[in-house]
Design goal:
heterodimer; A: 338 residues; alpha+beta; Alpha-Beta Plaits; 2 domains; 3-stranded mixed beta sheet; 12 strands; globular; B: 388 residues; mainly alpha; Formate dehydrogenase/DMSO reductase fold; 2 strands; 3% strand
Chain lengths: 338, 388
């Protein structure tokens, strides 16, 4: 059988067009899915970098509360093994860490130029988490009431797409272990169930890590932003609205933004800082979660599986015709004969 | 009119190249063993900044695109009814069988908690919003479909008495009768998961350079996978004809190369259309690593279109081969860039694969080629004998 040029062109064009027409038509109508709302009893943390003194009591308490091992640089690990900890960043062994921003002479705390500032790194418990959206086996879960994002290692297959997709690089796979798992801050969910505070907020001496309801913490953050830098005010410790004594300290020179209010569709851990947030490793992010983009696409293409099933129906009809004609023609393959 | 019969190529299986490939596969196997004994960190340079490495980007994302020959040809032969291309169908299918099966093997090496992999199939763990969930199920299903589509090659090879004894002749009749169902699935499933391999990256947002990040990623991955599928058929036809001194089906490959160029042109139109619409094209000339990678990629994509634009060049085996190689290199670079090199997780993270990590990838590819050689020599795959 020969085909003339025109027939061929038509076939080639049709094949290209048809292969892409269905997804293209869908993608044209594509929009991100609706943003997720803050859960009704969302708990969270306000981390105020200007209050943090870098004592790392929170890092130590976190290790104890979650049974995580000490982390030591390899070349120093032989020295007084396991009695000290110097994690540089969160890792498979460290769920929470204090990092320091340094610039120039580091003369003054919370100043961008010739200054330094502390930042606490751990899960931000997103309102619309990417890790939950990408996880194929529901190993990441968000509590519908409190909004805490937890991880279930028994479900996890270790594909590490949560690590890949998290805008804050929070979930950490234990690459050094034979049977590694994903490590991430679960906001001391086990302690909260006993009515206790997350370990880091519990031990923080200055209230730099403050536990509370997200709505209340946002009000508290805005209160601090409204105050005049340098004047003194009361800073609560432990839990916002709790019975611990507050302490008096001068108001910091804040950046006029509560980080986490809008970033990535909102986070339940929010940050106040004296230096620009991106200097502390908190990336600039849009007001929606990329999970909403990704799921918007999936929901458009696979809504009720209608498009794939319709496509399958069409393909089967065409394939049946194709196979039949192939058999009827004299140049068919012998493999088609029994 | 030419009647074409699929025939085993015959000849020695354990040739020198086969043994060299085997040696490389064994080295890969050694490191795979180490991975399972001592963990991912023992053999790979993956980190929590770059938690996916070459095993995913090369073995899975590129490997399955190379395995799209069967998909691309089924679309042409059965859906668009271009029966003339039928002789190219079975070898294309075979490269798909191994491309996908060994991508599955690579996934099992890569999974950090492989002993839980079965959870993917347990409905109470299913997470329907997850793109990876869709990819995983779809790839598993398609790998099964590929083996079923290829099954007639095994059946033809079996002695009739053996087939009768185990009622396999009935299976053959059944397969023949319902082949169209599997063909339909065999076109639908790659359409779904090859586009989803692009959707996977939608979650990356600002971690991925805007030269690659666009909501058109699913379409771009799908169209480039199709183009690569046609290119693989061209490449493989040329290699087998040269390698085994068989006459080349140039009457088929010349027009097929035009299809490949057409699909590739469509890819570039969407790619540049999205970049222009997003206003990010300027980044290509920023002179940084990512801009330059984009330019190399684009050159590799444009070369085959320029080569294949003229009928004279299309009918040259050498130029067709070059065009196919360039297209496959461009498609592979596009995938590596989108998954790894154009990704910036911040925080100073960098990634370059370790030697053992690369040896596992090399080993898997070598195993793929070995199995392909074994199958074409012992099973009726290639259109070997020409009767007039």
């Amino acid at each position: 059988m020969t085909m003339n040029r025109r027939q061929f062109l038509r076939g080639a064009a049709a094949s290209a067009v048809a292969a892409v027409a269905a997804p293209a038509a869908e993608a044209a109508a594509f929009g991100p899915r609706e943003p997720k709302p803050l859960p009704p009893k969302a708990v969270g943390m306000l981390y105020d970098s200007t209050l943090c003194i870098g004592c790392k009591a929170c890092v130590s308490a976190c290790k104890q509360a979650n049974g995580m091992p000490a982390e030591q640089p390899e070349q120093l690990a032989a020295w007084n093994e396991e009695t000290w900890d110097a994690a540089e960043d969160i890792s498979g062994k460290t769920l929470n860490v204090i990092r320091v921003y340094q610039n120039g002479t580091m003369e003054q705390k919370d100043r961008e130029k010739d200054g330094y500032a502390f930042v606490k790194r751990h899960c931000l418990h997103c309102v619309d988490p990417s890790c939950i959206s990408v996880c194929p086996v529901s190993a990441m879960q968000k509590n519908p009431e409190t909004g805490i994002v937890t991880h279930n290692p028994d479900a996890c297959i270790g594909c590490r797409y949560c690590v890949y997709g998290c805008p804050f690089n929070v979930p950490q796979y234990q690459f050094d272990e034979t049977f590694g798992q994903i490590a991430k801050c679960q906001f001391c969910n086990h302690l909260q169930k006993q009515g206790k505070l997350p370990a880091c907020c519990d031990v923080c001496p200055t209230g730099a890590s403050l536990f509370g309801l997200v709505a209340d913490l946002q009000v508290e953050a805005q209160r601090r932003l409204a105050l005049k830098p340098g004047e003194t005010t009361q800073f609560p410790r432990g839990k916002l609205g709790g019975d611990r004594s507050s302490h008096e300290a001068p108001v910091g020179h804040y950046q006029p933004h509560v980080y986490g209010e809008t970033e990535s569709g909102g986070t339940q851990v929010r940050y106040l800082s004296g230096v620009p947030h991106e200097k502390l490793g908190l990336p600039e992010l849009p007001g929606h979660s990329y999970a909403a983009v990704s799921e918007g696409m999936q929901h458009t293409l696979y809504k009720g599986m209608i498009a794939p099933l319709a496509l399958l129906g069409g393909l089967v009809v065409l394939a049946r015709r194709g196979v039949k004609q192939n058999e009827d023609e004299p140049d068919h393959d012998e493999d088609q004969q029994p | 009119m030419t009647a074409i019969v699929h025939q085993p190529l015959g000849g020695k299986v354990f040739t020198k190249p086969f043994l060299i490939l085997g040696l490389l596969a064994l080295i890969g196997a050694y490191f795979i063993l180490r991975r399972f004994l001592f963990g991912l960190g023992d053999v790979s340079h993956m980190s929590n900044g770059y938690p996916l490495g070459v095993w995913v980007a090369v073995d899975v994302v590129i490997g399955t695109a190379f395995g799209c020959g069967g998909y691309a040809m089924a679309l042409l032969v059965y859906i668009f009814n271009r029966n003339t291309y039928h002789p190219l169908m079975r070898p294309a299918l075979l490269s798909g069988v191994f491309g996908y099966t060994l991508a599955g093997l690579a996934v099992m090496i890569d999974l950090g908690r492989y002993w839980n992999a079965f959870n993917l199939l347990l409905p109470w763990y299913a997470q329907l919003n997850s793109v990876i969930f869709e990819v995983a199920l779809c790839v598993m299903a398609y790998t099964t479909v590929l083996w079923i589509e290829f099954w007639p090659a095994f059946l033809e090879r079996m002695p009739p008495a053996f087939k009768q004894r185990f009622k396999l002749d009935r299976l053959q009749v059944f397969l023949k009768r319902y082949l169209y169902l599997f063909i339909g699935l065999g076109v639908l499933l790659p359409t779904m998961h090859q586009s989803s391999l692009g959707s996977v990256l939608l979650i990356m947002g600002s971690k991925l350079s805007p030269l690659w990040y666009t909501t058109w990623l699913p379409l771009l991955f799908l169209v480039s996978a199709l183009a690569m599928g046609y290119a693989v058929v061209l490449l493989e036809a040329t290699l087998t004809s040269r390698g085994f001194r068989l006459p080349e089906e140039s009457a088929l490959l010349t027009p097929l190369s035009k299809v490949a160029a057409g699909v590739l042109a469509l890819f570039l139109i969407v790619r540049f259309g999205a970049l222009l619409a997003g206003g990010h094209l300027g980044l290509a000339f920023a002179g940084d690593v990512r801009g330059n990678l984009f330019l190399i990629e684009t050159a590799l994509f444009l070369a085959p279109i320029i080569i294949l634009a003229s009928p004279a060049r299309r009918s040259s085996q050498r130029l067709r081969f070059l065009a196919a190689v360039s297209l496959l290199a461009g498609g592979s670079l596009y995938r590596i860039n989108a998954y790894l090199m154009a990704v910036d997780p911040g925080n100073g993270w960098t990634y370059f694969p370790s030697a053992p990590e690369l040896m596992i990838t090399v080993g898997v590819v070598c195993l793929e080629i070995m199995l392909y050689l074994l199958f074409i020599k012992t099973l009726p795959v290639l259109p070997g004998v020409h009767k007039t």
